[in-house]
C-alpha cells in the first residue's frame, strides 16, 4: 500500500497542534499503524513531527517574517503545512528545499486548498531563498531565549530568575539534543553484558553504563515492540535519573515498599528486583487504566513481588499507617525536566498549573507520610526543575513533619555527586552529565 508520509505527518500535527493531544501518544499510534513502512520512512515521519512540535515557536517566528497572513490567522491545515515545509527547509538539509516546497503545495491542494497553492509556494520559496539571512532576536532582546529555543517566554523568564541566564540557556538548549535510549536490564534473568550480546545479534548497539551498572544505552533499533528481548521481558525502558530513586531509597531485602503514584511502574519494578521473596512493593495509582499498565509491565518482566492496586494518593489508607519501610512519592509535576522527550509539555503547562501542582504535591505528602514506620524512609521525587515543585516543597515537608533530611551524596554513584545540593537533595538539570540524564529532583527523609 502506497502511503504519503507527509500526509501522515499532517494528520499527526493536526491532532497535536489543533486538538491538543500529546505528540508522543499520537506519533506512537501512527507508527504502529504504519509499521510496514521502511525504517527511513518511519524515521522521516518521526523527525518532522517532533521537529515541528519542539520548534513550533521558532517556526512561527520565521513564517511570520515572510507571510502577510500571520500564523495564528491561517487555516489550521495551512498553518501546519507551512510549519512542515519551513522545518524541512531550515533544519533538514537532506530533504531539499524544492521538494519541501513542492510537496507542501501538493498537500495543500489534496486537502482542498488549491486556491492557496500560490500562497504556500510563495512564502516557502521566499523562506528558502533567504534562510541564511533570517534575522533572529539577539541576546539583548527580551524574546531571544523564547524564539531561539522555542520555549514560552514565561518559562524562559522563570529559569533565568531561578538559575541565571547562562544556566537557563544551557537547559533550554539541551531539549534539542538527542541521545541513545536508556534501558534497564532485568537482572533477575541475565547480566547487562549478556543482554548487550543478545541485542548485538539484531545490530543494536548496547553500551553498559559504568555508574548505574544495570543500565544500558542502545542505538540502531527501529521500534521497541519489534525487539524480541523487550517482548521477552529482558529489559524495560527507564531513564537514568528515574533509576536513582532506587539508589536513594536503599531498600533492604525484606522491606515493605509503597509506591503511591507508580505508573508506568519503572521505579516499583526496579525496587522490587532489589528485594527478597519476603519483601514486596505495593504499587498504586489513581485509575484502573494506569494500574493496568503497571500489571502489564511487571508481567512482561516476570516480577511477582509487586501488589498492584487502584488508589487515590490523596485518600488516607488507614490500614497502612506506619506499616511501610519505604514510601515512594514520585508525584505529579510539570515535567519541565524532560522537554527532550516530551517536547509539547512546554505548551500545555501554565504558571497557574505549576502552583496547582505544587499545592497538590503538598497534599499528597501530608497524606502518604503517615504510612512510613519509625526510622522508615520517604522518597519525594519529580521530573521537573521548578523550585516551587521540588526543593521548596521538600524543605516545607521537613519543617512540617517529624522527618529528618537524608544527605543523598553517599547513596548515589560518585560521578554524580555534583548534583547533590547543600540540603542533601538531588537536583539534576537538563544538559548535565552529557545530557544522559533527565532533569530530575529527589529528596529522602527518615521518620524520627
Short recap of the structure:
The protein is α/β, with parallel strands linked by helices. It contains 18 helices and 12 strands. It is globular.
Largest sheet: 8 strands, mixed
Number of domains: 3
Report the order of strands and helices: HHHHHHHHHHEHEEHEHEHEHEEHHEHEEE
Task: Please identify, by name, the CATH architecture of the largest domain.
Answer: 3-Layer(aba) Sandwich
Please provide the count of β strands. 12
Mean pLDDT: 96
> The CATH topology of the largest domain, please?
Rossmann fold
Overall description:
This protein has 448 residues and is α/β, with parallel strands linked by helices. The protein has 3 domains: 5-135, NusB-like (N-utilizing Substance Protein B Homolog, Chain A); 181-237, 2-Layer Sandwich (Alpha-Beta Plaits); 241-447, Vaccinia Virus protein VP39 (Rossmann fold, 3-Layer(aba) Sandwich). It contains 18 helices and 12 strands. It has helices at residues 5-18, 23-33, 39-54, 56-66, 76-91, 97-110, 117-130, 144-148, 153-163, 165-173, 192-200, 228-231, 240-249, 266-272, 288-301, 345-348, 351-368, 391-400, and strands at residues 181-185, 205-208, 215-219, 235-237, 256-259, 280-285, 306-310, 324-330, 372-382, 403-406, 426-428, 440-447. The strands form 2 sheets. Strands 5, 6, 7, 8, 9, 10, 11 and 12 form an 8-stranded mixed beta sheet that branches. Helix 1 runs parallel beside helix 3 (39-54), helix 4 packs across helix 5 and helix 9 crosses helix 10 (165-173).
Amino acid at each position: 500500500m502506497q502511503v504519503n508520509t507527509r500526509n501522515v505527518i499532517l494528520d499527526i500535527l493536526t491532532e497535536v497542534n489543533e486538538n491538543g493531544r500529546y505528540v508522543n501518544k499520537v506519533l506512537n499510534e501512527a507508527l504502529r499503524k504504519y509499521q510496514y513502512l521502511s525504517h527511513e520512512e518511519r524515521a522521516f515521519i518521526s523527525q518532522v513531527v517532533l521537529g515541528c512540535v519542539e520548534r513550533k515557536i521558532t517556526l512561527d517566528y520565521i513564517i511570520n517574517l515572510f507571510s502577510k497572513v500571520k500564523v495564528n490567522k491561517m487555516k489550521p491545515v495551512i498553518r501546519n503545512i507551512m510549519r512542515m515545509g519551513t522545518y524541512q527547509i531550515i533544519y533538514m538539509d537532506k530533504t531539499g528545499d524544492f521538494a519541501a516546497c513542492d510537496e507542501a503545495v501538493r498537500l495543500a491542494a489534496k486537502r482542498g486548498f488549491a486556491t492557496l497553492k500560490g500562497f504556500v509556494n510563495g512564502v516557502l520559496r521566499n523562506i528558502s531563498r533567504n534562510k541564511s539571512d533570517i534575522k533572529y532576536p539577539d541576546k539583548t532582546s527580551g524574546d531571544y531565549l523564547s524564539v531561539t529555543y522555542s520555549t514560552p517566554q514565561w518559562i524562559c523568564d522563570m529559569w533565568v530568575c531561578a538559575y541565571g541566564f547562562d544556566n537557563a540557556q544551557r537547559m533550554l538548549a539541551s531539549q534539542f539534543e538527542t541521545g541513545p535510549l536508556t534501558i534497564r536490564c532485568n537482572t533477575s534473568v541475565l547480566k547487562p553484558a549478556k543482554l548487550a550480546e543478545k541485542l548485538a545479534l539484531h545490530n543494536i548497539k548496547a553500551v553498559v553504563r559504568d555508574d548505574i551498572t544495570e543500565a544500558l544505552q542502545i542505538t540502531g533499533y527501529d521500534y521497541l515492540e519489534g525487539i524480541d528481548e523487550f517482548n521477552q521481558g529482558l529489559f524495560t525502558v527507564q531513564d537514568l535519573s528515574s533509576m536513582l530513586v532506587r539508589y536513594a531509597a536503599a531498600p533492604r531485602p525484606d522491606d515493605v515498599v509503597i509506591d503511591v503514584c507508580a505508573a508506568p511502574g519503572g521505579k516499583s519494578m526496579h525496587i522490587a528486583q532489589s528485594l527478597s521473596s519476603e519483601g514486596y512493593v505495593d504499587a498504586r495509582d489513581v485509575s484502573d487504566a494506569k494500574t493496568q499498565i503497571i500489571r502489564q509491565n511487571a508481567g512482561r518482566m516476570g516480577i511477582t513481588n509487586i501488589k498492584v492496586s487502584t488508589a487515590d494518593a490523596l485518600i488516607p489508607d488507614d490500614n497502612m499507617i506506619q506499616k511501610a519501610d519505604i514510601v515512594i512519592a514520585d508525584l505529579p509535576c510539570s515535567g519541565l525536566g524532560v522537554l527532550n522527550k516530551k517536547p509539547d509539555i512546554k505548551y500545555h503547562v501554565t504558571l497557574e498549573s505549576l502552583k496547582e501542582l505544587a499545592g497538590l504535591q503538598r497534599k499528597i505528602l501530608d497524606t502518604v507520610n503517615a504510612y512510613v514506620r519509625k526510622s522508615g524512609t520517604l522518597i519525594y521525587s519529580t521530573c521537573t526543575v521548578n523550585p516551587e515543585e521540588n526543593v521548596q516543597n521538600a524543605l516545607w515537608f521537613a519543617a512540617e513533619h517529624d522527618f529528618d533530611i537524608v544527605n543523598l551524596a553517599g547513596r548515589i554513584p560518585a560521578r554524580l555527586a555534583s548534583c547533590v545540593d547543600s540540603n542533601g537533595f538531588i537536583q539534576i538539570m537538563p544538559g548535565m552529565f552529557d545530557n544522559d540524564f533527565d532533569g530530575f529532583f529527589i529528596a529522602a527523609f527518615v521518620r524520627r
